[in-house]
Amino acid sequence: MTSVFLRRPMHFEIVAKCHTTKARVSRMTLAHGVTMLPTFMPVATQAAIKGLTAQQIEALGVTLILNNTYHLNLRPGLEVLNAAGGAHKFQGWNGNLLTDSGGFQLVSLSKFTTITEEGALFSSPFTGEPTMLTPEESISIQHAIGADIIMQLDDVVSSLTTGSRVEEAMERSVRWLDRCILQHEKSGKKGQQNLFAIVQGGLDPQLRDRCLDAMIERRNGVAGYAIGGLSGGEEKGLSGTTYCPRTCSKHHQMSSGECNIKQCADKLPEERPRYSMGIGFAEDLLVCVALGVDMADCVFPTRTARFGVALTHKGPVNLKLSKHAKDLKPIDESCPCPTCRDGTSRAMLNHIVTHETAAAHAITLHNIVFQAQVMGRAREAIIAGTFPDYLCKFFAEYFGDTGYPEWCVNALRSVGVDLLEGNEKAKMIPGSGAKWEYASLDA
Amino acid sequence: MSQPSAAATFTFSLPSPSRYGPRIGSILYRRPGVSSEPIQIQTPGLLTATSRGVVPHLSRDNHRATSAIRWVNVPFETFLEHNPPLPTLQPGPNPLHTFLGFTPGKHLLSMSARDPYDGREMPANSVNHVSVYSLRGVRKLSPSDWRSYVQACQPDVVFALSDTPFTDPPYSQKRMTKSIDRSATWLSTILKPKEGEHPPNVFVHMAGGTSLAARKAFSDSLVERLYGPEADAVAPLVTLDEGVTGYSVDLVPLRQSLEAEERKNPRTSSPSDLNPVIPSHTEQIIPLLKSSFASVPETKPRLVNSTESPHEILQYISSVGIDLFDAHWAQRAADIGVALDFEFPVRHSSGDKRDIGHNLYDTRYALDLKPFADAFRGALADDSSSALPVCRCLACSPFHPATRIYHGYDTPEHSGLPARDPDSGPHYKPPHTRAYIHHLLHTHEMSAHTLLVMHNLEVLDAFFAGIRHVIAEHPERWTEEVEKFFRRYDSDTRVFTAAKESWKSVELARGKGRLAREKGKQEETTLGTVVETDD
């Protein structure tokens, strides 16, 4: 419709835009197929979505998954990946694949990582030997892995970090982007793989703005932009348990996270895909989509499944609770996932959850489909011109009985959607307001 | 409770019955109103074990995609954590199938009170209950409750309660007498005809422990004409055996008793002790099984639970004439990272003795990009002219699914990707490799076990198909083929021991710690949210 970014190997085409919010539907064609955006990417950290097979993921209608460079580089290692002919073949996945650069894991998984201008120095978790990951090496590793989208190495700092370290990290991330672009250009892999930049800058809007300017200048070297630096490096932080809205709300900086996303999405070139890293709660996904984000990933839906929590349009359902033990209804009767379509009862899931891996598989299948449905319905609504209505309906169904997270209400107001309009009785919950089914509510 | 107008029929045909020795047969299970095609299970064949009602590691789509899974046994004891047990609450036809997600037209479901693989010491049974194990502790299961659960769940086959002691062996003669008396009484409880109820298809566990005389006495008691109150209890049946569909033997309690007896009377060394080819106690168990089948009709199916190797299976087929074996050991092999790789009949008997599978934890597989088994190829093989048979499991022969879920504005007309023609047959992909599973095992990824269990069940199913083929087509070569198998494959199953060690070390290094860490994280998320909501 509006703009097309056409440069091998990526074809990015905006199909429709929301008349009110910044949301858009686009068609992203990569070497391993077409992915309709906005989309959620399930995470296959170690080259497998927990417990499932590549064939199952394909049947769920997922077209783009994520692998972790840091993990795959350690195990199975490049020798194996090269022998197998790349990560696609190694895991039997023929769809699109994205790898992160490994920078985030260096900070979140290793306490002893030292960042120098050359790269990140860390001790190998297996041998303890000091190991250096440079931007060039990160790109080379990602070339060997062979993902359709690869990420620059960035200097990740915790969103709680303040002061000169944030500025240093931002500036270094820009310099590292140049080295990544150079490495990517000379590799001969440009015809198959697409490099994304990661916009940095912590929670400081000025820094972030400078970073945006610098990275947009380098637009000819990159195929898309990720919005990072919102979640990294908290003490025990892995993407998924700590990220933007939660991180921010914990420290009463409620609006900062979404403001950063908004600031980035507003400024980033329209004809490039925008990827918000580590976002996975349904309400966060929809706010991000409304702010103009096209892609997001998070381990949350697959991790929470292993602990017995199924995601539904009425909020998460904790299947470990005894109130589900005699409930012969499926998780969600209208859900198209294999688990619900088969009529797997909550009672049966309650019987096996945390005892049998098959329970994790059943709920993982469901949660991946739930995420895909949230995003698929968003695409349909954007096309139909009803995305603001969809937001209102989704939030009413999801939060109607508990109250709306304040930050979501504020964030959506900034793009012209008022969740509370015509809904005087609606409550607002300060903080993140994330919904959970608590054991304590179980009589 | 509503009853189907016509009963399902279980027929077992044995073209040339033999009391002791290899035999091929076929079970036809016709379920009225479900499908025109009956379920067919050829024997010798396998039954799939379940844990808490599921085939371990398999989601429902994957257990359906595994053609080896036809007869599925459901130990019921875990459901006794709730009263009434959950499956008894399931409305509609075929309640057990519905509750557990098995297909009435494809899967034959049997129900046993206990997990036949569980040999843990248990409190004593009484004249009116069996001690069963659930996560909430030991439960007492009475024969009349068992009958009512069976009527509510409507399994296709039920194992009658058996008084098998799991107290500290060995057992006295008095205890064995009690055992066979109670087992016979409990059998009559489930056989007792009742107005408006279809009699279930009952398999009876052949009681008698390690005593030849007791085993003989129990099987005699099945075929003896009943008199007095015992006859009235099961009338119009004249003998207990008339109501019995088949026979079963659980090996775990037998092995435990034999071991205990040996500890008590240390054996003087015998030639069989020095021969590592014979797995533990098989030689002692064979005469015990034969005594159980001495007087009962030879035309009914015989099922043995908890064998531990293909060698053992071949011996029970050869010497006793067993028709059905549980696949627990092959499923367990998938738990500990072993990909089974053996064939019967053996085509190439030259070369070194081989293990019956690959311990994929072993670093020698880190770079091994071959499919799981040397004896099979995937459906998409580079060399389709290869003489190797195809392993149809989703690890060796994965394919692009014919259909996928669409979520909104992503159908082919919008994405521009062509839809796959669902009628064009499976579009196969290359097999998953040993290197991939090696990686998944070492990174503690559950997908490893999912792929391995589907593979192991198919390898075991192909093993039984080969057994049936030799018995049917070349019965004169049976003994020779069994000997060839023993020469070709190491019966010492050292590969399992090694795999168990690797499995344990990875569990220790990553498993527990990782689970604890993940639990911590999960709690962290929850707790964090709690704080914020209360804020």
CATH superfamily of the domain at 9-43 and 76-259 and 282-305 in chain B: Queuine tRNA-ribosyltransferase-like
Biggest protein-protein contact in the assembly: A-B, 87 and 77 residues
End-to-end C-alpha gap of chain A: 54 Å
Rg value of chain A = 21 Å
Shape of chain B: globular
Q: Quick one: how many beta strands of chain A?
A: 19
Globally, the shape of chain A reads globular
How is this structure best described in words?
The complex is a heterodimer of chains A (443) and B (535). Chain A is of the alpha/beta class. Chain A folds into two domains: 11-297, Queuine tRNA-ribosyltransferase-like (TIM Barrel), CATH 3.20.20; 304-429, no CATH class. Helix content of chain A is 40%, strand content 16%. Chain A is built from 17 helices and 19 strands. Chain A has helices at 54-59, 69-74, 78-84, 87-91, 103-109, 135-145, 164-187, 205-217, 244-250, 256-267, 282-291, 300-306, 338-341, 346-352, 357-384, 387-399, 406-413, and strands at residues 4-7, 10-17, 24-30, 33-37, 39-41, 64-67, 96-99, 114-115, 120-123, 130-133, 149-151, 194-199, 224-227, 274-276, 295-297, 309-310, 317-318, 404-405, 428-429. In chain A, the strands form five sheets. Chain A has an eight-stranded parallel sheet with strand order 5-15-14-13-12-11-7-6. Chain A has a four-stranded antiparallel sheet with strand order 1-2-3-4. Chain A has a three-stranded antiparallel sheet with strand order 8-9-10. In chain A, helix 7 (164-187) links the parallel strand 11 (149-151) and strand 12. Chain A starts with a strand and ends in a 14-residue tail after the last strand. Chain B is of the alpha/beta class and 535 residues long. Chain B has a domain at 9-43 and 76-259 and 282-305: Alpha-Beta Barrel (TIM Barrel). Chain B has helices at residues 60-64, 95-100, 143-153, 173-191, 212-223, 228-234, 251-264, 271-274, 282-292, 310-319, 328-335, 412-415, 434-442, 447-473, 478-488, 494-534; strands at residues 9-13, 25-30, 39-43, 45-49, 71-75, 108-112, 130-134, 137-141, 157-159, 202-205, 244-250, 302-305, 324-326, 338-340, 357-359, 399-400, 427-428. In chain B, the strands form five sheets. An eight-stranded parallel beta barrel of chain B has the order 4-5-6-9-10-11-12-13, surrounded by four helices. In chain B, strands 1-2-3 form a three-stranded antiparallel sheet. In chain B, helix 4 (173-191) links the parallel strand 9 (157-159) and strand 10 (202-205). In chain B, helix 3 packs parallel to helix 4 (173-191), helix 5 (212-223) runs parallel beside helix 9 and helix 11 packs antiparallel against helix 14 (447-473). Chain B is globular, with a radius of gyration of 25 Å. At the A-B interface, strand 3, strand 4, helix 1, helix 3 and helix 4 of A face helix 1, helix 2, strand 16, helix 13 and helix 14 of B. Chain B: One of its GO terms (biological process) is tRNA modification. Chain B: Pfam families: TGT.
